[in-house]
Amino acid sequence: MSTFTIIAIVLLIGAIGATLGFRRGSALRAEGGRKPHSRPVYHASYVFTWGVIPALLVLSVWLIASPILNELNVRGDFPEGAVAEANLTDDLAYGIVESIGSGLRALPESERETVTAETPIAEAVPLFRQYGVPVASASADWMIPLAIERNAFQDISRWAMTLVVIALAAIGTFHGYRGIRTRLRARNKVESVVNSMLVIASSIAILTTVGIVISLVSESADFFARVDPWTFFFGTVWEPRFAAAGSGGAEGQFGLIPLLAGTLYIGFVAMLVAVPIGLFAAIYMAEYASNRVRSVAKPLLEVLAGIPTIVYGFFALVTVGPFFRDLSAQISGLLTGDYSAFIQAQSVLTAGFVMGIMLIPFVSSLSDDIITSVPGSLRDGSLGLGATRSETIKKVVLPAALPGIVSALLLTASRAIGETMIVVLAAGVAANLTINPFEAMTTITVKIVQQLTGDLEFTSPQTLVAFALGITLFVITLCLNVYALYIVRKYKEQYE
Amino acid sequence: MMENIQATLNERASVTPNRTIKMKTEKVTVHYGQKQALNGIDLEVYERQVTALIGPSGCGKSTYLRCLNRMNDTIDAAKVAGTILLDGENIYDPDLDVVELRARVGMVFQKPNPFPKSIWENVAYGPKIHGLAKTKDELEEIVHTSLKKAGLYNEVKDRLDEPGTGLSGGQQQRLCIARAIAVSPEVILMDEPCSALDPIATATVEELIDELKQNYTIVIVTHSMQQAARVSQQTAMFHLGDLAEVGDTEMMFSNPSDKRTQDYIMGRFG
């Protein structure tokens, strides 16, 4: 029986229990005498909880544990020396056994019976081929019995699981139903279950973050064991030298500075474009636009935020980059008579400009909310003193909104720093260190992609450097976000 | 209730009122979209007197008040018609600058709304915008005088650079009055200035209003009939967008001629 069927049956049992529980609760109420502690709907949820939650918990534990036990069992049965003889590792050998096992399941019933523990692999392989099941060339005769054993274990485990889970659902439901009485505090119990589910949901998010950080830290530690942190953080040359990997000594140079400079530079240009435009748009939307204009213009502006960044990327690559290059050629032609472009098609300027366009809706939407949340009474107060609208905005509204706007800008900046696709297409992948915005530079994120998509072992510094880059980026954006949150909190206290 | 108000009126030695007309409205109507909020209000506001606008909630008294310095302009849906004269000049005349008008007709709001700036900055805000002070000393002078007139100076003189939002509710409201006074308006409009204050702070603000009327024309919206009786010389009773009755405060409370005014003062509705 498939896992989904089992879950459906458990839920069905729970639903039946809930209905019965509801009836019983209503009956208690109708009986008169002492008023029941909880309403029938809580009795229903109480029975449902008892029926479903233990059963599903056991189901998930079983689903995790059963394959592990199966694997341990099969590995224990590997013939002495056979693995080493075939020049395999235990992991690979078990992988092959596993694929033979699932291959067997793919065969029609009649054919499957012809394969027994004694069938040599040479006979089984054509059969597998016939049904389109790939078999590794390293498979050996001794693997077939193990595969059969594995499948048998799997079948038994599944049957046992089905029985146990459904029985548990039934018993739980019965137990819950039996427990219903006038003084049963079903409401409080159900709420504590809901409470713990909420706690679990939030801890999943937190634990994931913790897990990611731990893996980043440990992999980076591995990298720093091979490469001196000093040369990483303060090195000005980025040249990992893929070709030299593994040849000892010549492991390349991992200088962070060009990447960090590129990241900050492109981010800075992007903010230079996004902040004024976004902020002015927000002021117009919040303070001047009539309701009709606002209801049309605001969603339109926010559509920009819905465009995937890769689309911005090729917009930069095919339109903006060549446009800047041609423009610069015309300008230099007019000034010097020499029509050679001084802006490269892939440049900091292009990437920053396009990224800035992408960030406009973030700036404007966040700032708009903040400006709108400045109490109207302050505007009235200022207008009532005979200030004009723009004086009111400059002297009262914006100063009051400033902390919020600053934190919005910090959040936007952390987005700019984390952006990848636009940079790959618009600024290229060359790790230059320059202050000329018309030349190509690249960013931390781009290099992470490049290092991880290379064809290298996962233990080489060329790959591990991605983690060191990742943690650097993480620390930068974390600091920006924490600072932004701190400012937001301070701002809230001011008005509430 | 009646006795209370009567006692208040008797306590006050009613002075012969000065009868120069400061503001005059003729057939003022206001529409919010389709809904008519005011149905033709004719009212005269006398110079250096306190005019109280009373009436049940939703009767249009605040809407009327906001017409007097065109604060209704800031509400998109509001349409004002009719004539409103300030010293004989129509304030809705297209040639008249609304900014200048609001400098002459100041406003104090229901909820104290000091800017999130220092006390000093709050008061200096208006004079700076209108360029009332040529030197720093002059500005300093305006700030101090305004705070003194608002009866707040002694309480805050040592902490003028602290935020205005840190004051108590009553102090904040007096700060807002000081802020309004600082631009030397001729008329001060007050929209239920005491509704967010405790009785002690209310008493202080009422005393202040009584003093201010020597220099300013004041129009005050209030929910409290005792307050209207205590501070005003003229009272206008609004009801469902109409001006039910207007007259000397003393007359209104002792001998109302309109049935609706009687009912309201007796506490039968509102």
TrEMBL record, chain A:
Domain ABC transmembrane type-1: residue ranges: 260-484
GO cellular component: plasma membrane
InterPro entries registered for this protein in UniProt: MetI-like, MetI-like_sf, Phosphate_PstC, PstC_N
Record membrane topology: Multi-pass membrane protein
CDD domains listed in its UniProt record: TM_PBP2 (cd06261)
UniProt key word Transmembrane: yes
Functional note: Part of the binding-protein-dependent transport system for phosphate; probably responsible for the translocation of the substrate across the membrane.
Protein name per its UniProtKB record: Phosphate transport system permease protein
GO biological process, one term: phosphate ion transport
Pfam (any one): DUF3708
Gene behind the chain: pstC
TrEMBL record, chain B:
InterPro entries membership: AAA+_ATPase (IPR003593), ABC_transporter-like_ATP-bd (IPR003439), ABC_transporter-like_CS (IPR017871), P-loop_NTPase (IPR027417), PstB-like (IPR005670)
Domain ABC transporter: 23-265
Keywords linked to the UniProt accession: ATP-binding, Nucleotide-binding, Phosphate transport, Transport
Pfam families found in the cross-reference section: ABC_tran (PF00005)
GO CC annotation: membrane
Signal peptide bounds: none
GO biological process: phosphate ion transmembrane transport
Superkingdom of this protein's organism: Bacteria
Gene Ontology MF, one: phosphate transmembrane transporter activity
NCBIfam families: 3a0107s01c2
Assigned protein family: Belongs to the ABC transporter superfamily.
Record's protein name: Phosphate ABC transporter ATP-binding protein
Annotated source species: Fulvimarina endophytica
